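Progress narrative, work stream C.
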Amino acid sequence: MRAIVQDAYGSADAMRFDADVERPVPGDDDVLVRVRAAGVDAGVWHLMTGTPYLVRLMGYGLRRPKYRIPGMDMAGTVEAVGANVTRLRPGDEVFGMGKGAFAEYACAPQAKLALKPASLSFEQAAALPVSGLTALQALRDSGGIRAGQKVLVIGASGGVGSYAVQLAKAYGAEVTGVCGTAKTDLVRSLGADHVIDYTRAEIGAGAGTATGAAGGAPARYDLVLDIAGGRPLSRLRRALTPRGTLVLVGNEAGGRWSGGMGRLLRAALLSLFVGQRLRPMAAAERYEDLDVLADFVGAGRLTPALDRTYPLSEAPEAVRSLAEHRVRGKSVVTV
């Protein structure tokens, strides 16, 4: 089969197209998917570079990638199923998470796949799993979102953020999105009630600063999702109500060894001594929540924001574009 392969950690230049790669064989609990499209997210970049180094210690390979074919998000058609698979059968159109999605065929556990919503193309469905699950669980499980709350999404124009804005609106919240100048129109189109351009005003920098820059956006929020990951905890806490909740989604601002892990640990410790809830989160990959996302899609409350698609041979450029923060919403590799 054709695939993108990577034999060493590095930049996108470490990836290469190979037209003669052995097709994977599904285990007893796995599904073999004929991939039609694969999503591009921050996890692909982390596993490509092997940073932070903590990623390597988590079982992804100390000196070189353990999994030669990159890619996690996928959408396609079930080609074959393992002996223990009961939920899916050959011919089903599915989306979800697996390993080696940048290829014509990839395997995924049945517990991480769901039936693709009929209203979504394969490209749209491939953009949904990891980022959509992260946004859903950050708001619902870690954030405890309720109708009528004031919610701030920092990093609203990215993959997770674009879903978080839509889902927060679906839950009945008043939503403010934070992004750069070139992406404010995208965040407004997603349904945000207010948009803050971080190049002109900074969240929590001082009383009234955010309000003045955002056309009536609240100065304090019941729930803050920090997806960008670069602001000090003290500044984020100033944007919260006294009993508000901060959910830390991203770890992109830390060093090469542990990433933002130190910041997450400080938040968890500080939360024991203050009235505000400071919660690090990591998404759980499960088909039940993929079904929840599919329900939101079916109800017209959630739509993937696709930036552009790349053919399989240009997957390295898709990852490079993500690393350089040139993506609005999500990019997808088509197979």
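Work stream C, second folded protein:
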Amino acid sequence: MRIGVVANAYHPDIGGVETHVRRLVAGLAAAGDEVEVITQAAGRSVETIEGVLVRRFPLTVPAGNYRLSVPLWRWLRAHADEYDVLHAHSYHALVALCAALGNRAPLVFTPHYHGTGHSRFRAALHPLYRPFGRTIMARSGAVVCVTAAERDLVLRDFPEVGDRAVVIPNGTDPRPSVPAPVSRVRRILCVGRLEQYKRVDRVIRAMSHLGPDHRLDVVGTGPAAAQWRQLAARLGLAGQVVFHGRLDDAAFDACLAQASAAVSASAHEAFGMAVADALAAGLPTVAAPIPAHREVAGLAGDGAWLRLTDPDDETALAAALSEAAAAGRTRPATLPSWDDVVGATRDIYAAVTGRPASVIPPRGPASAVLPEGSVAGAGGR
């Protein structure tokens, strides 16, 4: 099957959506599909990354809020019928609208929907954008949500989607079992794009209640990075809170191997990939009690070490971090794999296009979660 994956950004850009798209397209290519990523960037380029052709189109509107590439839209208008299916990602970016307008190609949409914007300005724009969002939803043969919590939000705001909205949880990367680090310093890992809604500032403030035998490793980049570095310095935590920026896979694996615990204080997530990856590595984890994190907890099962703690309660968060860092590594949680995601997504493509998927690799021990009577069930194996 020839698949065009339309994304706001792509590797080496980092973030939850970028990771999702990268893992998905790699799995599709491994399954024998011809996959192209259609994305936008500062300049035009065509390159092959990890066996996948990546077309980058120059930005017409480079603003951080709803950036737009008109050349990308023109490409899709001219070439969309060359693909068996287009798969657009992220409601919170105009690129999905480009995929929905001006062509008749079968469309699958993964909105990664939070129900609001990630800043006051974007939250104010959100109601104004909803008619355009409704256009994308109406054009989509299937709307793929990564949690039931996200699906509930989608159906709350777009009830007309109905049974076209299905759930395929994000996958986790298999990681080798590693012993607990031998160190007097207990390192707490915080991974994600550094935006205000991730609330890393709450974690930094909680670190002021812990002694120098605790260290926070912040991995990621984003617009709030400078502000949070200044906060750590003002609190006298410059040596106790370490900002690593963007790490490649090998450097991140090394950081993960040295961690005693993980934390996510995010206020909005469609899934909570950082929490899932930490639990899959056997790391005791502290997370904000948002619906997506609760759902990941359910997928991970009772054996996973996870404390849901309000990040606005500084004392409680500090206590939970201390407890997690002292707990020691546990058996890695068994969560859906990216093979599961690829297999279930190819079922969606088959249902939407009416074309059977080609040979699909065996799924892992955890199967993707789909609602009864979903689109995937209609076209699945």
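Residues 359-381 have pLDDT under 50 and may be disordered. No further action is required on this item.
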